[in-house]
Design brief:
The protein is built from eight helices and twelve strands. It starts with a helix and ends with a strand. The chain is an alpha/beta fold. The strands form two sheets. Strands 3-2-1-10-11-12 form a six-stranded mixed beta sheet, covered by helices on one side. The protein has a six-stranded mixed beta sheet with strand order 4-5-6-7-9-8, covered by helices on one side. Strand 5, helix 7 and strand 6 form a beta-alpha-beta unit. The N terminus is likely disordered.
Amino acid sequence: MRSFAALFLLLACTFARAEEPPLTRIAFGSCNRPWRENRLWEPILSDQPQLWIWLGDIVYGNADMANLAHLYAWQKSKPEYQKLHETCRVIGVWDDNDYGESDGGADFPKKVESQKLLLDFLDESADSPRRTQRGVYASYTFGPSSKSVKVVLLDTRYFRGKPGVDSDILGEEQWRWLEQQLAGSSAQIHLIGSGTEVIACEHLFEKWGDYPKARQRLFDLLAKTKPRCPIILSGDRHLGEISCIEIAGFPSPLYDITSSGMTHFAAPALQNFFYDFDKEPNRYRSGNLFCGYNFGLLTIDWTQSPPRITAQIRDAENTVRCEAVIQQK
């Protein structure tokens, strides 16, 4: 009787995975201060995403772990955010302000405690590999095998060295893990989450461009493993933009969709004498740059072969401010 029950449960779980609907709407964002009004939850909810991805700076804390825990609890208590939790899956990764140290990296002394707080906030299960590994990198696969989306979240803090030509961001164990995730994947779409921008490299702020060897290593890994339709999702910048680059050995352009500034954003030139964000150079930018409250939205058209993804940056009125249509060759 027990054997029959176990077999029935296994078949039921297998059938459930096979019948899981494909993702068609994915929303994402970063840079959120719980004590400020977040005007974006209403438009985000109205777009009915099936998945929400935090790309870092979920809260703004420091090395005081009690304060960081308080900020996570404050964010989790907000009714609009609770409604998001009720209507879609929520996953995420950190950047420096929820890591616990501005521009922090491998030498941050409280990163183990900080890791636990992030995973508690994300309701990561007790048996999740993220609970025992060093760093919060993770991968998730959604949808049936014929229409699957793999989300690979990179930890760009735990192993991060000081900026420099030969410095690294991910650490060797994470690089090995990432290659396994890409080389062995049969997913039709791969979303790679990074707290900081990967492609844009001319601005003055944190970016993969400060680690040119690591940045090139990521591009070379994509060319080597050739995952289907890779798209980078990034945050941190307090602005929205879409960047695109050609990679030697890879058949299609690589896009980086940057969404940042859920409760605050980069001031325009008239309000900021230090730096003119509106005229920030980016040789890889596709379309315009947007300084304002924003979130990212991906819509997937599975009737196309290969699937066609519309990537958008939307503002507090749900108006499209940046857009790219992506379909791998």
